[in-house]
């Protein structure tokens, strides 16, 4: 039984290491004179890294092999697979014509992702027994990488493998900058961990499916992934804007009471943030 238990500790880490391999493979595809085909394959590799990154935590929870070791390993994997690899990929795909400015933007994406993960670890350390929170603090780095990957995959499918036009360089650069800022921001994005079967959730799912069908039929199926990523980005921004507006209104109505309320809300958010970002996923001190 003890040997079986130890083997179970290895399983989640194997998924995390596989995610690292996918990121490493994407980097090798981007080196040298990478053409549209190699960049497309690199985007697919990062997409698979996202899959393995999502599976490792669920496997750890099912096998009850969560630990701080898993959080650190997962963060290192995320820096490589969703920070370095997408940064190099988007530089090769669109930002290279901008020279040093394009190089700096690609680096900023990687650096902001690393900063976001450092904040993740700090908040997880504040509440090591947390988990199951409703919000992420800032845009998670896998989702930021997912936006870039979806753009590259969709462009390759729509254009038939043609290189990106120079006219699209500036919009892509603005997207990279925006994603970088969102990762280090305090915009709160839903985790959907509290989602339960209900009329509201069923209606939301129907709207998403209907929107995907409309986009696939009127434009191109490849743009459905881009639309889903864009909708998630906007959801966080809209909810944060509504929250800020509510705070401003509360301050105008009752300045003294509002200050206390805002302070309480901030404290609650800090606790939620620690819970949202906490939840060690893997274990493995016995294998160090």
Topology:
Elements: H1 2-30, H2 36-63, H3 68-95, H4 100-126, E1 135-137, H5 141-159, H6 169-184, E2 188-190, H7 199-218, H8 223-253, H9 255-277
Antiparallel strand pairs: 1-2
How many individual β-strands?
2
Q: Assign the structural class, choosing from mainly alpha, mainly beta, alpha/beta, alpha+beta, or little secondary structure.
A: mainly alpha
Largest sheet report: 2 strands, antiparallel
Query: Do you know the CATH topology?
Result: Four Helix Bundle (Hemerythrin (Met), subunit A)
Distance between the termini: 20 Å
Order of helices and strands: HHHHEHHEHHH
Portion in strands: under 5%
Can you identify the CATH superfamily?
A: CDP-alcohol phosphotransferase transmembrane (TM) domain
Q: What CATH architecture do you see?
A: Up-down Bundle
Low-confidence stretches: 258-262, 269-280, 282-288
CATH class category: Mainly Alpha
List the strand order in the largest sheet.
1-2
Question: Given the C-alpha coordinates, what overall shape results?
Answer: globular
Total helical elements: 9
What is the number of domains? 1
Q: Nearest-angstrom radius of gyration?
A: 20 Å
Helix proportion range:
over 70%
Mean pLDDT across all amino acids: 80
């Amino acid at each position: 039984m003890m040997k079986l238990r130890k083997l179970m500790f290895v399983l989640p880490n194997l998924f995390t290491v596989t995610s690292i391999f996918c990121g490493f493979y994407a980097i090798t595809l981007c080196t040298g004179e990478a053409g549209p085909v190699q960049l497309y394959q690199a985007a697919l590799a990062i997409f698979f890294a996202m899959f393995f990154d999502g599976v490792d935590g669920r496997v750890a929870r099912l096998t009850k092999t969560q630990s701080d070791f898993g959080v650190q390993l997962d963060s290192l994997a995320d820096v490589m697979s969703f920070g370095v690899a997408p940064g190099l990929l988007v530089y090769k795909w669109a930002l290279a014509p901008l020279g040093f400015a394009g190089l700096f933007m690609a680096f900023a994406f990687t650096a902001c992702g690393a900063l976001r993960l450092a904040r993740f670890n700090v908040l997880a350390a504040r509440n090591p027994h947390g988990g199951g929170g409703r919000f992420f603090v800032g845009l998670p780095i896998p989702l930021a990488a997912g936006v870039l990957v979806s753009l590259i995959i969709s462009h390759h499918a729509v254009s038939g493998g043609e290189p990106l036009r120079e006219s699209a360089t500036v919009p892509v650069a603005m997207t990279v900058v925006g994603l970088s800022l969102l990762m280090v921001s305090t915009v709160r994005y839903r985790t959907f961990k509290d989602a339960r079967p209900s009329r509201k959730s069923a209606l939301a799912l129907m709207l998403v499916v209907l929107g995907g069908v409309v986009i696939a039929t009127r434009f191109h199926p490849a743009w459905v992934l881009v639309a889903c990523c864009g909708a998630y980005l906007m959801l966080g921004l809209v909810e944060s804007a509504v929250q800020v507006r509510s705070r401003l209104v509360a301050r105008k109505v009752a300045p003294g009471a509002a200050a206390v309320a805002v302070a309480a809300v901030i404290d609650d958010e800090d606790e939620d943030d620690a819970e949202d970002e906490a939840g060690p996923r893997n274990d493995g001190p016995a294998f160090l």
